Model the fold of this input.
Amino acid sequence: MAEIIQKDGTWAFDGEALRLTPGRDKNVSLLRRELGELVVPLGALAGVSFEQGRKSGRLRLRLRDGADPLTQATGGRLAEPNDPCQLTVESDRYGVAEYFADEVRNALLLDGVSPEPVTEYLLPGPPLPVSASAGDGTAGFDGERVRLEWNWKTEDAKSAGGPRTIPVADVVGVQWQPAAGLENGHLRFLVRGAPVTAPPKYDPNAVELWGFKKDPLMALVAAAVQARLPHPAAEADIRNGPPRLAKEPEPAESDHDALLRRLRELGDLHRDGILTAEEFALAKQAVLKRM
Done:
């Protein structure tokens, strides 16, 4: 098991999944603290990297496209302090961080995890119920309904209709945009039969965001709803026509046979120059340990 403990958080890897726990330091963001511990299966990863700096470094996980509803809902626009897949590493732990990254890389290589996009969410999304207050309103989601409530800063044209309750079955999309410069951000729910005709400031299906401290928490509401919508890959299949017939299931492969096959694949990768001699030796040793 590989583990790195920092003020920013603790990451642990048991060979099958990474457990990302936010730290208790005052500098840890509200979003990460509210999200809590995140379990990332190895199959959801596209890669891992460690970047050194003069005073601190950063461990980064790169998730496969379509694996995480939070990344899907935010379009990858979360600021670094709010990204649960990044960990600030103090300079005296650079060696531990390098070792941790190598262990994850070797596991990805050993298991032959593809970095290609996935067709279903591999992370569950934020725990329910979830609620956040920011900008001109409060957004909440209990797994079945989205509820929007307004505050004294809401425009009369939007608040006149009172609080909004939207069944998740009527939600066809989620938009989350952080404030940037002079441009306000928003959390908007695209509702079936309700075309978007007004900016978020006046849209009763949107909360306007102004760049304050609690704004990122709205991303958790967006992700919780996104996790319960059809996966984007499924939506693409519908647009592209009826699904093709599935292949007949292949006979199950024993663990021993699978490891032998993996050894052959590693040998081919080394022979073709894709793996260096050192990478091949490390991966081969990991396979032989499993046998």
